[in-house]
């Protein structure tokens, strides 16, 4: 038996790798480079995402879906002053408070902060309707404003773990958050009828 030279071994190894990769690509078990049916290619592989980023995106979507949109309601009926009926929810008030004065985070056993025994008082401070104007993509409408003053009473607990563990409690902590609720009322022929 004659020994193969190094160049022949390299040639044989290269040919075996090419044959193996081509059969793997056509088997349908690879990334779908050559397979049957539609494929996402390399984008079909699952990519892990951290729970922090996932929770951040979910909160962003929740905020947009619940509180960042301006609803368009029917026309204001005659016979009385229009009154805003939707007071801010407790979730909306706490989100506004977290945006203004965040508490999340801290380092366990080193420094932590909590809000306990939360009580919320909501007061309407203004409720008025603007004159009619034309809004792009909506048409003639009136904007209805409702302004609320939300006072949050809570117990502020701070736990410090280093150098000497101790707890600081402020039982009479309070914060004030102002929340605006705006929505539009259509004006005129909202059904789009021809009037014939």
From TrEMBL:
Transmembrane segments: 12-34
Keywords in alphabetical order: Membrane, Transmembrane, Transmembrane helix
Protein name as annotated: Lipoprotein
């Amino acid at each position: 038996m004659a020994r193969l030279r190094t160049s022949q071994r390299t040639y044989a190894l290269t040919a075996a790798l090419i044959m193996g990769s081509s059969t793997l690509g056509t088997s349908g078990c690879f990334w779908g480079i050559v397979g049957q049916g539609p494929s996402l290619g390399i984008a079909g592989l699952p990519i892990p995402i951290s729970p922090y980023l996932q929770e951040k995106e979910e909160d962003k979507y929740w905020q947009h879906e619940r509180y960042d949109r301006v609803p368009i309601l029917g026309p204001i009926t005659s016979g009385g002053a229009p009154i805003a009926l939707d007071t801010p929810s407790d979730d909306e008030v706490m989100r506004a408070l977290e945006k203004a004065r965040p508490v999340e985070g801290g380092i366990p056993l080193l420094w932590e902060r909590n809000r306990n025994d939360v009580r919320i008082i909501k007061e309407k401070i203004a409720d008025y309707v603007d004159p009619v104007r034309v809004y792009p993509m909506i048409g003639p409408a009136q904007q209805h404003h409702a302004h609320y003053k939300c006072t949050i009473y809570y117990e502020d607990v701070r736990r410090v773990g280093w150098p000497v563990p101790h707890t600081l409690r402020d039982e009479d902590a309070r914060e004030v958050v102002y929340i605006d609720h705006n929505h539009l009322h259509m004006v005129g022929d909202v059904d789009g009828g021809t009037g014939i």
